[in-house]
Amino acid sequence: MFAEAKQDCDSALRLEPANKKAFYRRAVANKGLKDYLSSSSDLQEVLHQDPNVTEAEKELEEVTLLLRQSLARGSPSNPRRPVPITEVEGTEDEARQAAAPDRTKAAESETGETSTTSTSTPAPPDTHCGGRGGGGRGEEAVTINLKPSNAYEFNQSLNAARTQSDLPACAELLSCVPPETLPVYLSNQLDGHTVSFVMQALETQLLRKEPNLVYQHLNHLHTADRFSVVVMLLEKSERDQMTRLFDRLSAVDSDAFSKNDVQNLANKYI
Fold this sequence. Notes:
By secondary structure, this protein is mainly alpha-helical. The chain has 2 domains: 2-71, Serine Threonine Protein Phosphatase 5, Tetratricopeptide repeat (Alpha Horseshoe); 131-266. 61% of the residues lie in helices and 2% in strands. The protein has 13 helices and 2 strands, in the order H-H-H-H-H-E-E-H-H-H-H-H-H-H-H. A two-stranded antiparallel sheet has the order 1-2. The longest helix has 20 residues, at 54-73.
């Protein structure tokens, strides 16, 4: 029943891509098929065309709740694969001895120290896109790497800045990362808190000084994996913050982008 209804709506939309009723009916069909993400997308299209469709608004609230519950439970169609365990001959003492060098190397890698004696070289002073210390009074200082070379280093730095609520550090980090690499770096750890923190840094720290960079980051960020799902699950206050950022950006007079460009980009977020 739902599958046939969806096919009918697909056919109608191919003939009339802006058919509001077809979008709404397909959203209901997708909901029945438990494809909550597609249902949400169609309902948002309905509300984009006509914000006064109260039925679509109610359906969107329900579908969003169902999607959250589905994500919390995990997908039953993709069970976790068992991890094979290979038995290794030898005593427990031998296993510990074999693992000891690896633990030593790991410790040396984390601390930057080796067992051999070497002449220490003073660290260079902090520079832009280098590193900065974090942590307030009574807290252990945490160095934030402002020039990450891969996704792991970037997320370590971003998490450190977010843990300390250090928006200036986040802004410096974003200033040092090419906008086209941001979605690649964030794809594996993208969540609502991260998106909200990045948006705060863009608005409060970078918008006034580097509006073109803010636009470029926003123009690439929405291409990250799972971005549409994450944005859909944001709280109202976080959505309001996002709206405020785009409102302020659209008021900027720039040769790199127009007000219409900002409005089109905002549709991918709000």
